[in-house]
Amino acid sequence: MRLTFTVQRYNPEVDVHPHSEEYRLEVGRGMTVLEALIRIKDEQDGSLSLRYSCRSAICGSCAMEINGSEKLACRTSVRKELERHGGIVVAPLRNLPVIKDLVVDMSSFWGKIRSVTPWLLAEPSAGGDRPPGPMTLMPQSYEFHNVDACIMCGACVAACTVHEVSKSFLGPAALAKADRFLADPREPESSKRFRLKELEKEHGIWDCTRCNFCVQVCPKDVKPMEAIVRLRRAAIQRGLTSTGGARHITGFAELIEREGRLNEAIMPLKVVSFDWKRLLSVIPLGVRMLLKGKVPNPLGRPIQGMEHVRSIFAAARRRAKSA
After folding, report:
1. What values do phi and psi take at 9, rounded to 5?
2. Range(s) for CATH 3.10.20.30 in the chain?
3. Measured over all CA atoms, what is the biggest interatomic distance in the chain, rounded to whole angstroms?
4. Contact at 8 Å (CB) between 289 and 266?
């Protein structure tokens, strides 16, 4: 069967804007998109640039956008793409600078991986919470939640909606890598706390909007968004609640435990805390909420079954203490 492949081409040295070129290729049963691109380069256009290595979904080099979604070209079936989309459209990964055609500059990606300190901070702390000498890591002593399966392909960063508008965001891959080291029992508690204090800063764990695109495109089922949620939970458990994102979660829980429902009039105040500039900025919001009937009546009757709601929070606290 002869099939048309539409490939985005761009050479910064000669092109002002990216453009598309079409290639007709005879495809066989079981052919992957990577195999097709290699044949196009070998048989039709030697100037086409793409990156690949293992061809076995191990190295992550051939990650690219295929029919609007980030995928590994070496494991993407031409037949399945044709059945789902009616054609094959290939482009480089989004949110990363294009070097040429389908090859992107991964420098910023690797810089963010390095910035989360992707190694164990195993120095003995002042409190002496780590025994001296080597430690044996037993399988039952840790749970990495599959984040160690990441092959650094960059697909999650290309799909990330936050990284699209904020290039300073650490990104899903780097934060998932940080979660792997936080879960390692060989790292002392003092180092884990230091790691979380760095990650809770601007452009860190609280910038994720939980769009879930990183989970959808990950070829290794790493689930980076879930790793970010675990980092947030770990930060709150250690009392790192000064950021707006952490205050939103703790404030929400406090209101539910106290009133049995979300009090939308108080929630913004929980987030802004004692920041007077931000407090003044939410006053117009409060007025609009009042006019829309979003402010609960302070003299209204309490919600029935509050003792059951509070018992849930009490049980959660007991379970956290025993863990």
Report:
1. -115, 140
2. 2-103
3. 79
4. no
What stretch(es) of the chain map to CATH 1.10.1060.10? Answer: 106-237
Q: Are 39 and 25 in contact (CB under 8 A)?
A: yes
How large is the C-alpha radius of gyration of the chain? 25
CB 59 within 8 A of CB 37: no
Q: Taking the mean position of all CA atoms in its chain, how far away is CA 206?
A: 11
CATH code that applies to domain 106-237: 1.10.1060.10
Return the ∠ at Cα 317 (arms to 314 and 321), rounded to 5°.
Answer: 140
Strand, coil or helix: 158: helix
- Please enumerate in sequence order all residues whose Cβ is within 8 A of that of 36, keeping only pairs 6 or more positions apart, or say none: 3, 5, 25, 27, 78, 88
Which residue is associated with the tokens 């459209």?
Answer: 89
CA 106 from chain centre, in angstroms, equals 17
| Separation CA 191–CA 128 (nearest Å) | 12
- Which token pair is 24? 């007709």
Q: Kindly report the backbone phi and psi dihedral angles of residue 89, in degrees, each rounded to the nearest multiple of 5, phi listed first.
A: -120, 125
pLDDT in tens, the chain (323 residues): 899 999 999 999 999 999 999 999 999 889 999 999 999 999 999 999 999 999 999 999 999 999 999 999 999 999 999 999 999 999 999 999 999 999 999 999 999 999 999 998 876 444 445 556 676 777 776 788 999 999 999 999 999 999 999 999 999 999 999 999 999 988 899 999 999 999 999 999 999 999 999 999 999 999 999 999 999 999 999 999 989 899 999 999 999 998 888 888 788 888 887 777 777 888 888 788 888 887 777 777 778 888 899 999 999 888 888 86
Q: What is the pTM of this model?
A: 0.87
Nearest to 214 by CA among 179, 171, 245: 171
**Which residues on neighbouring strands pair with residue 9, listed in sequence order?**
19
Q: Answer yes or no: are the C-beta atoms of 137 and 186 closer than 8 Å.
A: yes
- The domain made up of 2-103 has a fold known as Ubiquitin-like (UB roll) (3.10.20)
